[in-house]
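Q: What structure does this chain adopt?
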Amino acid sequence: MRLQNKVIIVTGSTTGIGKAIAIRCAAEGAKIVVHGLENDWGKEVVEQLGKDKAVLHIEDLSNEGTPERLVQLAINTFGKLDAVVNNAAIVASSNIHTTGLSFLRKLLEVNAIAPFALIKAALPELTKNKGCVLNIGSVNAYSGEPNLLAYSMTKGALMTMTRNLGDTLHRENGVRVNQINPGWVLTETETIRKREHGLPDNWYEDIAPVYAPAGRILWPHEIAAAAVYWLADESGPISGQVVDLEQHPFIGRNPPKDASAIVKK
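A:
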């Protein structure tokens, strides 16, 4: 039980990668504050984990006071807080022509500013318990797909924050801050996005090797397995690190621009 008795907030954990992280952390002995926007899905996650191991909070992270309420819920329910997983994010397609300022501000608010606010709200408790933060970024942080401009910008901001706080908070507060950048993961949201792009529902069964040398993309539980290491004491004093989780070297590759090319012809 690598996370025995640890209390962890996992944002965006009613679905996708966040849900997988919550499930894996609970299996490793942690108690979880489940968070998201989907109340019914959230209740299902809590039922799966067990009401003695999980508590649910449904609220938009960009709302005033949400970070503080999440932290207080962890303390009131489980008596402490050991770790924060900043996973919640808006994934939305846009480019220079379709990215309006209000749209960009909303993505920045949820994907970059809200994680900062939650770290800040949790810092006194994390300092007390020598806890840690794990930010869930994206390999798009380095440049991004042509039609993921705004999203990629927010993940770049998150990565810079991780590097910065991973140094300062570790030195000053004994709190480690690290990040994993997943590559292409088969989540519910990704399935919906590809359907909107005109691909068939089984698109993931036959992906071109340039995108998936293994013949498939990643599963959420594989990201969750990696997350446990960074949340557990076994990662020791490591802080300020960003690890890419993809099946091929990401930086420097130039795959086809045609989105339909993901599927073998």
